[in-house]
Amino acid sequence: MTEKVKETKVLDMEQKRADKIDKMQQFLTDNKIDCFDVQKIEDERHTTIFRSRMEVKGQILPMAVLMDDSVYIILQVQIAPQVIPEAKLPELAAAINNMNNNVRPFKFTVSEKGDFMLNACITAENNTFNPVLLNAIIGEALKFLEAQYSNIMEAIWKK
């Protein structure tokens, strides 16, 4: 008896990324949103970065949406640049972990340069990527930061 072999189709990851990018650019065009700069990175994941900024409590915070060949999109907001030197990180670890445990949609990280960042990881396969949802998550990040920015900065500066 001969077994039937299932053929596995390998998806073209570069095309998936391109489709997400096309959907995002079309959404921005359709909604007359012109505050994003687009940067294509020549890396192994074919990353494209949509850069913008948001104003929170009078502060301009850099924001980026990173898209690549994976099924993820990353939203990053730089809350405070270079405020956490490596030596200070152990003191702040408990406060950062507390924020990560209590704020479900966003996670907080410290970059190699000491930038304090808010991150959101969004699953976004080509056929399920929804720029409207991404826009809503950006809006939620803005509302969260408007409400909590002073508390976050107080936790950072008091340590």
Provide a concise account of the structure shown.
This protein has 3 helices and 6 strands. The chain has a 6-stranded antiparallel β-sheet. It has a single domain, classed as Yope Regulator, Chain: A (2-Layer Sandwich), CATH 3.30.1460.
Question: Describe it for me?
Answer:
The chain has 159 residues and is an alpha+beta fold. It has one domain (13-158): Yope Regulator, Chain: A. 38% of the residues lie in helices and 27% in strands. It contains three helices and six strands. Strands 1-2-3-4-6-5 form a six-stranded antiparallel beta sheet. A hairpin with a 7-residue loop joins β1 (37-40) and β2. The longest helix has 28 residues, at 131-158. It is globular, with a radius of gyration of 19 Å. The mean pLDDT is 87.
List keywords for this structure.
six-stranded antiparallel sheet, alpha+beta, 159 residues, single chain, 3 helices, 38% helix, 6 strands, Yope Regulator, Chain: A
